[in-house]
Amino acid sequence: MKRLVALVLLVAASVPVSARIKIGVAQIGDSGSPSELLNSVRELISVEPELDLIVGPDCALGGRENKARIKLTYFPDSVVYEAADTFEVSREVVAALDTLCELARAHSITILPGTIWEVDSFCRVFRTVPIISPRGIIVATRRKLRQLYRAPFIDPTIKLDTVFTHDGSSYTYLITISNEAMDLPKLYSASASADIWILMQWHYIDDVDQLVEQLEFSDSVAWSVVYNVFPDSIYDSLLTSGWISDSSLVVISSRAEHSGAFWLNALSLDTTQQVIPGYTQLDSGAIVNVDPYSRDPLGRIVVVAKDSFGAPQESVFTFVVNPDSSYMEFDWTDSNGVAEFDVKLYGQYTVVTVRWGSIVRPTESMVMV
Fold first, then answer.
1. Whether the predicted model's global pTM rises above the 0.90 cut
2. List of domains in the chain
3. Arithmetic mean of pLDDT, 13-20
4. Residue 169 burial (C-beta neighbours within 10 Å; 0-12, 13-18, 19+)
């Protein structure tokens, strides 16, 4: 008579303790306005009130043409802004900056709203990123490069900045604005590599959503699409000069219908090694919940198989289906009765276990990560 062995499977999901940052990537349409950027920022905050950083696109405030001019006055620990003319669009940008500062202070968020048109006392015009601190004031700026030459009124802004998170962690970030990514390393030397590369753009990259879709959500990456959308000429000089590393997190905010984030070394990893940041896609952007220091999985699902007497059971066939049912992993329990599976997405996983000639309980489990 065949002996029936009841296997009791203990299924547990563990998430490693690590420092994480929550980044809101604002997204506005090609003909966007300051009010559209504000709507995007408000939506991001309403979905995740404890965001650490919000990033907007190039030309987010004032448009692509130089029609909204803002005068900035620099003090040692702050930057004061005002309209440089009487145009209505300039007043709209000032009002938007007022609101962004209020939101940053109310929710303790660092906000990089994208570029404004800054005009100085010598009537020089810059595309400038105001850096709004969690205190609700502009503490620094990042001026876009003059192509192919350095300038003393731009040089001090070309550096890594630091963002502090709600949990007390800190990360360095590099901002590049549209097409300057290739020129920056030719003019400026890096002192360290950024944890996060923030690329604010208009149409410099044509189809960011397709790029992110391929790198982070596709089981079979169409590399021809990836390299066409994001050729290595965009980032290679930043990488070889040390401004970024192959493990830097790339965050792209675009004034078009695409924004997203991925790890730079996703461009060279096999798809079975892909790890997706915690990703929430919204109508007007995305929220990324990630540890920039590591492409390690979010955690592991550990399956432990024992018989009714508590002895470990080897060779129990186990497979795990990820939350969107697009990917399945399988393995056999080892001599200790253990099988482990990397967690690559937030959500509910289905764990199924089978061993022929035995009664397995439970045959199916749900694990929420």
1. no
2. 6-15+297-368 (2.60.40.1930), 21-290 (3.60.110)
3. 54
4. middle
